[in-house]
Design goal:
single chain; about 300 residues; alpha+beta; Protocatechuate 3,4-Dioxygenase, subunit A; 2 domains; 5-stranded mixed sheet; globular; binds fe (ii) ion
């Protein structure tokens, strides 16, 4: 058996030549950014395949995995975002692109359940849409990093019901549940009611679930509410508020958790609620101020 000569990077010379040829094939790409991205991708992809000595069976399995991830995705489910999430790629990209100032609210993953053009609500409305769960009243302010109120900020919110499901996971459900859009008032305040979110497993009936099973990884996310907050002149904030005391804090399947985003959801006995009603069941309140950086300030 003869051994192939290797270059300092450890690649056989024949493979190194192949890599160089593929890199050169992108030399004439008009967009400098596309050229840089593709050449870096090729370099890392070739180095990765060489590093693990990728077999043809593994290559075919990867192709099948990605094909099935695409086929199971539609306008209500996004398996490829989920894949990015469980690989930590989503949080890496968030960190690269949203290095919040010390004063601003931290960002986290958007996740696979965001829907554009959710129903519009006024402050004080119930956005649950009939979602099952314990009543919860949400309030707070939208502020600049300097502490001044931001009026008219767009607040988009979405969360699970008490089964841990989002509305889009119910095939028969037409309307939105636990999902809506509202705007901050003149003093930056917002308020709405809905239900208390619970911890939930990320969808594991598809290729990503197979991967988690194969790796003996937990699929649970700690209970949280998603928010996207935007206002002219400010950097759009995509974040969660996590429920303090949740047993899955510290082991988020998609690595989206941050200590700064954990809040106490206060339990109240039956009685007068923040919206003026007298509730016959226990309810919760949560307060969170969103602090936005000025656009391109960091
Ligand atoms: Fe979520």
């Amino acid at each position: 058996m003869t051994t192939q000569p290797s270059d300092p990077a450890g690649l056989p010379t024949a493979d190194r030549t192949l890599t160089d040829r593929v890199l050169a094939s992108f030399d004439a790409t008009p967009s400098p950014r596309l050229r840089a991205v593709m050449q870096s991708l090729v370099s890392h992809l070739h180095a990765f395949a060489s590093d693990v000595r990728l077999t043809e069976e593994e290559w075919a399995a990867a192709v099948s995995f990605l094909t099935r991830a695409g086929q199971i995705s539609d306008d209500r489910r996004q398996e490829l975002i989920l894949l990015s999430d469980v690989l930590g790629l989503s949080m890496l990209v968030v960190g690269i692109n949203h290095p919040a100032s010390a004063a601003a609210t931290d960002s986290t993953v958007v996740g696979p359940f965001f829907v554009e053009n959710a129903p519009e609500f006024a402050n004080g409305d119930d956005i649950s849409g009939g979602a099952a769960g314990e009543p919860c009243f949400y309030s707070g302010r939208v502020l600049s990093a300097a502490g001044t109120p931001i009026a008219g900020a767009r607040i988009e919110v979405w969360h699970s019901d008490d089964e841990g499901n989002y509305d889009v996971q119910y095939a028969q459900l037409d309307g939105a549940q636990g999902r809506g859009r509202l705007r901050s008032e003149a003093d930056g305040r917002y308020r709405f009611s809905s239900v208390l979110p619970v911890p939930y497993p990320i969808p594991h009936d598809g290729p990503v679930g197979e991967l988690l099973d194969a790796a003996k990884r937990d699929s649970m996310r700690p209970a949280h509410v998603h928010f996207r907050v935007s206002a002219p002149g400010f950097a759009t904030l995509t974040t969660h508020v996590f429920v303090a005391g949740d047993p899955y804090l510290g082991s988020d399947a998609v690595f989206g958790e941050k200590d700064s985003l954990v809040r106490t959801f206060v339990r109240h006995d039956p009685g007068p609620a923040p919206d003026g009603r007298v509730l016959g069941t226990a309810f919760f309140t949560m307060a969170f101020d969103f602090v936005l950086d000025v656009a391109d300030s960091v």
